[in-house]
Structures are given as structure tokens and as C-alpha cells.
Amino acid sequence: MVALLAKPEISVAADRGVLLVFQDRLAVLEWPDEGKGLVLLEQGADLRADVDRILNAHQGGLLFLVVVGGDDDVPVLLKEADRAAPNRDHLGVYHLDHAGRLVRVAGRRLPLLESAASRLAQVEPLDPSEAPALIERGRQERTEAAAFASNLSRRFPTWTFAIIAVCFLTFALLDGSGPAGLAFKNRLSAGTTAVSQGELWRVITYAFLHANLPHLLVNMLALYSLGGFLESLLGVRRYLLTYLASALGGGLATVAAGTVRVAMGAMPYSTVGASGAIWGLMGATLALVLSRQRVLPRLVARGLRQRLLFVLVINVALSFVPGIDLFAHFGGGLTGFLIARGGPGERTA
Fold first, then answer.
1. What span, in angstroms and rounded, lies between the C-alpha atoms of 141 and 297?
2. Catalytic member of 11, 275, 291, 319
């Protein structure tokens, strides 16, 4: 089981845990980016005391315990121990019998554990001589991730805050200046007809305008959350290139789509908002996470991959809400992805 979960040649990279301890009856693995740990405990003479000791030491995060070996009395013992555990809401307890059958006794599920159990017969157990190298590799990965986070935290995202300030300033000046301000705002939005008539600046300036205060706040929160990380990672030049090119890509996409729609008899429309550029930052982050050049430490990339997938699913769904320009979103996202694929980011750890 340890080989399936921790050995790079065997385990799935996205699921590989960090091996912390490998002793005669005990193995401990951790997924630090996900806040979960796994204890594999071989059945022994004083199993209940061993199990209670492990469960009582559990302080935070998700803990999964697998007792290996033993007869039908083991699940009964584990159920009793689970009921007495202080943090049972964050606990999952399994029994792996001598035949290699894994049974969840109580608590949470760990799908990757259940998947690994289905492959037990196909893989040789971990050779004890391999454990020190795996433990050292895990230590290095944790150190690398910590150094990466520390380096990023020391870099102030000046240009991200500058873009946010410009967006707030343009909103205050234009939306707070009555009809004249709104008329000027319309001259800066990504209008299909106007761009086709030569007002090319609109495919960039639209990204610094917003329809209303909630629109502005949501976009700036997203920019703050993602922009600071990417600015520190990519460096100022590549970050600004990615942001502005994504805004341009989103603007061109919405103008192209609008031109087709107008040709088919639809009414012309205009677009405002930083969403295309922000989608470009999401696309760039996705490209970096998927890169084979190891731009990001493995533990950082895995944590980002999971969070980014959730964010992308939500944003794709929102893109189809009436009134939201999905072409600006997807055009900006594709542009950012392609730019980030063009070369590695600045490695900070």
C-alpha cells in the first residue's frame, strides 16, 4: 500500500503522498497541501491502545487510519475506537484484511486509498531499503514548497494594486460624473460597430471599466486573489504582458463574435469589465500547473490544480449567465494560457 501511495514510479503523480515514517508496524503519509494524513498500522498485541494513541494525538486536518491484518474482531474494535475519538468528524477508519480487502469501518472516505487497494495484487510491497530515500524526498518537497511560499510572500504585488487602483479610479470618475461621464465611458467600451469603424483602443480600454459597483468589486477581488500570486511568480514584465494581452484577446474575441451576430441580424452590443484579463490569469495559472518544466514545486502545483479546477468550473458556468460576455472570458483565458505555455515562469524556489 505504501508503494502505491508514495513511490513515484507507481503512484499517480497527482495523488502521491509524502512518506514521513516507515517502521516495522507503522507507516505515516501526508498530503500537506490538502491537510490530510494517513496512518497504516499493522495489527499487534495491544491494538486498541495503539489505535487510541493515534486517534487521541490527532489535532487538526483529516486523518485516515488503516489497520492491516487481524480477524473479524478488528472492525468491531475500530468502531468502538472511532466512537471515542475526540475529532471523529475529521476521521476515516479502514481495515485491510489478510486477503487484501479494504473495508471502510467508519467516518470519511479516501478515494485514492480505495483505488490503491484495488491494485494491491499488482504491485510489490515497498522494500524497507527504499523508505529512507522516499522520506528524504518528501522532506525536500516540503522544504521546497515552504521556501517557494516564503519567497512569494516577500514580494509586494505593486502592479496588481496599480491595476485595481486604476479600475476604481475610472469607475469613480466616469460613473460619478453624470451623463458626460457615462458618454465618455461608452467611448471606451468594446463596442462591435465602433471597433469595426476604427476605434481600436476599445479592445483594451474596456478592461478598465465596469458596469456597476458589484461588477467592479467581484472582479477586483478575483484580481487581488490571483494577480498578486502571478505577479510575484512571473515577474512584472511577463505578468503585465499576460494581463494586457489577455485583455486584448478577450476584446478581440467579443468584437469578432459580435460582428458575426450583427451580420446575422442581432443588435450591436458593447462590453466592459476586467473579466477577460482575469480569465487570462486563470489560463496562465492552468498552463503553469500543467507544465512539465516544473515551474512550480510539486506540492504547490497539486494544491493549485485542485483549487483552480473548482474556480474554473464555477466561472465557466457563470459565463453562460445572460448579460455576461462569455467570448471575452474564453478569449482572454485562451490568450493567457497560450502565453504561459510559451515559456517558463520565474522560478522562485
1. 7
2. 275
